[in-house]
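[job 4417] fold queue: 2 targets
>>> target A
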Amino acid sequence: MANGEIRIDLNSTTGPQGTQGTPGAAGAAGAAGATGATGATGATGSQGIQGATGATGATGATGATGATGSQGAQGIQGIQGIQGEQGEQGEQGIQGEQGTAGTNGSSSTVFPYKAKTGTTTGNPGAGYFIWNNATQVNATQLNISHLAQGSLDIDVVLALLKTGDSIIVQDEGVSNNYQRWTVSATPTVQTGYVQVPVTLDDSGGTGTTGFANNHNMSLFIFSTGTQGPQGIQGVQGATGATGAAGPTGAAGPTGATGATGSQGIQGIQGATGATGATGSQGIQGATGATGATGATGATGAAGSIITAARGYRSAVSTGLTGLVQIGYNTHDYIDVAGYHSTSTNNARWKAPVAGRYRLTAQVGLGAVSNQGAIVGIDKNDSGAFIWQQALSVIPAGTLSGQIVAQVTTGWLNLAINDYLAVSVFCDDSSWDLGAENVWAVFERSA
C-alpha cells in the first residue's frame, strides 16, 4: 500500500479506530526487477478528519395536513320573551226567564146556619152568625157560633181560619143570594163563638140588600193551601265569545358566543358542537276579567179563577153496590152551557175549551155494616183515579150516621171535550149515598 493511502473494506465490520502506522524507509534504487508480489494490506488507518459539510439536499415532500381542532362549545340560548297578556273574557249571556210559580192549593167545607140581624156584637147564639154592622155589606167582622144548626160543633174548623181564607154566606135555597168575604186578620176565639175580621169581595141578590133574620143559610169555608213549587229555572244564556289573544312578547337577547377552542393539529373536520339549552318559558299573561251576569227575567203574572159550574143531588140513593159514578141532577150555578148537563151524562164535568181546570167534590155516604170505601176522581172514564181518598170505616146504619169526605184534583191541563167524574167504591153489599151534602164545584183558570 502506498504511503498515505487509506483503504476501507466495505465488507468488513468497522472495528475500533486503529493507531497511525509508521511510515516505511525509502528503499534503494534497485535494478528494475520483476514486479514483486503485492504486499499484504496494511491495517486500517485511523478515522480521517471530518470532511466538509456537503451541500444541502433537496427539500423533502410536505407531510400530510394535521387533523382540525374540535369546534368550540355553542353559546347559551337567550331567555324566552314574556308571554303577551290574555284577551278579555266575553260578556255573560242573558239570564233565562224565571219559571212561573205554582198555584195555591185549597179546600172547602159547607155548614148550615141561620142569620141573626137583631144584634151586632157578642155571642150570636148556637146555630147563628151576626154582622158587626146593621148594613151587612159594610161589616168588617163576622161573629160565628161554634155550633152550626143541628148542634154540629165546628170549633176546630173555625179555630184554623187564617188570613187569606174565604168565607161565603149563601141563601140555603137560592145560590144567587150570597156574600163572599176574605179573612183580613187572625180570628179571635171567644167562649162559644169566633170573631173573624173580614173584607167584602162581592155579593148578589139579597146578599147585597141584606139577609132577613132567622133565614136559613149555608156557610162555606175555603182554606188556602200552601204555595205551589217554584217554576223551573230558565235556560242559561250562551257564554260570550273569548277575547282575542294578546300579542306575542319580544324575543329574548341571543346568548353570548362560546369561547373558540384552541387550534388543534390540522386534521379531519371536527364534529359540530351541541346546541345550547333553550331559554326558560316566559311568564303567563293575566286572565281577563269575567263579564257581568245578565239580569233575571220577570216572574209571570198569576191567572184569575172562574167558577164554571156548581151542582148537587136532589135525592138520597140507597141499596148501592160496588163502584158507583156519581151523577148531579141539579145546578145552583153554571157560567157557560157545556160545562155540565143535569140530564145527559150528568156525572161528567166537561171542558168546552182547552185550559186549566179544577174539580172539588164532597160526598156523604153510609153503609149497613162497617166497611172501607174509596172516593176518587178519574179522567175520560180511564178506569184509574187521578186523585183518591181512602175511608177506613163507614159507620153502619142509615144516612143519619153517614161520613162526609172531600176530594179535589188540583189544577189540571184539559184538552177540549176532556171530562172529569167523581166515583165511590164500597166493599159493603149495600150502601147509601146522600143528597144536599153531595155536591161538586168545577173551576177554570182564566
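>>> target B
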Amino acid sequence: MAPRFPVAKFTEAYLIYLRLFGAIALARTSAAPLIVAVGGALRADSSTERALRHALAHAHALGARVRLFSGPALDIPLYAPERSARTPEAAALLEALRQADGVILGSPGYHGGVSGLVKNVLDYAEDLRDDPRCYLEDRAVGCVGTGGGWQGATAALAALRSIVHALRGWNTPLGVAINTAEPAFDASGACLDPKIAAQLDTLAAQVVDFARRAMAARQVAEAKSRLAVG
C-alpha cells in the first residue's frame, strides 16, 4: 500500500508559511520606520545640522517618518548617572531614541573627536540600558562627521562610529565626512556638492533599508511566538 500523503501536516506548514510571509510583506511595504537624527551645534543651521536635514529629507522620501534633534534641543544638563531627574528636552530625546527604528548621528570635529555637546547627548543613552532593545541595539546608525578640514571631519566620523559600536548599534557601511572648509551648503541649507549629496542619500537609504529589515525580522519573531503559543 502506498504511503498516504500527509495532507494535514502539509496544510499546517503552508499556513505557517503564509502567515510568516504576510508578516514580512506587511513590515516591508506598510510600516513606516522612524528615523531619528541627533547632532549638530547649539546654533541653528550649522553645517552638521544641514547635513542631517538633507539625510532625513531623503529618508522621508523613501517613506520613513523622521525626527531631528539639533540646536537648542541638545542643550541639556551634563549627564550624571547618579541624577535620575530628566529635563523635558532630555526626556523627549530619550523617548525618540527608544522608539527609533534607525538613527543618524552628526558631529563637528573637536580636537580629535566629537564635540562635548554631542558626546554628552549620547551619554544619556545609558538610560536605555535596561530596555528590551538595549542602548542602540537592533538599529542601523549612520554617522556624519564635519570639520574645517579633512582631519577634523574624519576624526569626528571615526569617533562616532566607535561610540555606535559601544552602544551596540549597527554602523551603516557608509559613513560621511564633510570638509566644511569647502562650500558644502548654501544659505538655504541646500547641498552644493553633488558627491556629498549622493553620499548623504546613500547613508539615509542604508539606514531606512536596514530599519525595514529589522522591523520585518521582529514581525517574524512575533509571528513565530504566536504560532508556538497557539
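[job 4417] complete. Note on B: The mean pLDDT is 89.
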